[in-house]
Input
Amino acid sequence: MTDKLSLSELQLIIKDSIYLAMPDMYWVMAEISEIRENYAGHCYLELIEKHPDDKNVRARVKAIIWSNRYRFLKSLFENVTGEQLRSGMKVLVKIKVDYHEIYGLSLIISDIDPSYTAGEMALKRQLIIKRLEEEGVLMMNKELGFPFVPQRIAVISSASAAGYLDFTRHLKENSFGYVFYTALFEAIMQGTETEQSIINALERISVNAALFDVVAIIRGGGSQSDLSWFDNYKIAYYVTQFPLPVITGIGHEKDLSVTDLVAFRSLKTPTAVADFLIGSVSEAENYLNELSTKIAENTRTIITRYRDITESFRTKLIPVARLALSDRREQLSNRIIEIINIGKEYIIRAGFLPKNLSSRLISATGSFIFANKTCTERNRLDLISFTMSTLENVKSRLSGLENTLNILDPVNVLKRGFTLTSRDGVIIKSAGEIHEEDTIDTQFSDGQIKSKVILPQMNQEPQLQVKHTNNY
Output
């Protein structure tokens, strides 16, 4: 083909070809990937088809529901399914293939089969339940022991939800005056972020599980579509594995969600959850009261029975005690007589004891004095010997010190040839202390002379020249 086409001519050929090839309306099964409404009321969608692995996309196309048709289809779909059209939902739609020169290929939706979507949702729910059953975890949370007095409640909810406010107010204002401790772990309770938000809240609670008795997942009422986010495998699985009993009150009036099915206890509303907790504490109180009454009754019965037994034994013991006392009295009298006789014998023996002790004391004293006298004499002799030896040593040391003093005597030092130099009576110890024209005194062993100091000339070695002025 040698003819040249403009882009618009090519687009018209494509458009005509599609119209001629697909002139009819078709029912198509697809999954909504994206959906949005614009200001004019038109609904724009992106439809996809996934592989069986539910991850990879094998087909994708744009679709449109015009506003005049969308209002009707939206109302019909929500009335039948209880759900809103949203991402991730599988639908069966009646379409007309359309091709626009600027916007390209798209599907114009004219009808939708809500029963198909409802069936898909029910099937998905059943598949989740079946999977949990096959994994053997469906009843795990229900098998946990429920606390006797559930007063510490970890709450998963939105802080601004009316259901949460009703729940806390109902607990606080209970007619019994019970005290409950609640901690809110805030989460998103509807929309695509519900799954991860609730799982994050459960994980935060599990870190401090020892601080709580139960977990309450609550939200206010809503449409079926708002509550369908709890038909979720991951949320349900986390609940089955949770170490604390989980109570749900997420607003289902008809069917239970998968999360409700796996929870320890599911209730319709947040206030119903509050009533359940109040009732549990009330049952515990009633049980304790009944137990207290039974304990009191049993105690009274036991006391009465043992009082009768005690009285019976008392009656039987009186004559036995009297007989025993009589025997003991007789034994005591005999023992007293024996003690008196023994005492007399000891007194007689004691008269001889002082004489024996006196004799032994005199003898022992003489021996002690003699022994000490001998020891004293020996010590005296040792002391004299030690004293003489010490005196000789001291005398020898004093003699040595005397010799040393004689050697160091200045007179003897001068006799050995040393002299003593002074100026004005002050002894000179260094040549640096002498100045020119100073008069100095020199002391010898046999006399004293006076000298006058003359310093050396420049460039000569320093020396001390002494001029004799007097000779003694």
The mean pLDDT is 83. The chain is about 50% helix and 20% strand. Residues 171 and 177 are 9 Å apart (CA to CA). The radius of gyration is 61 Å.
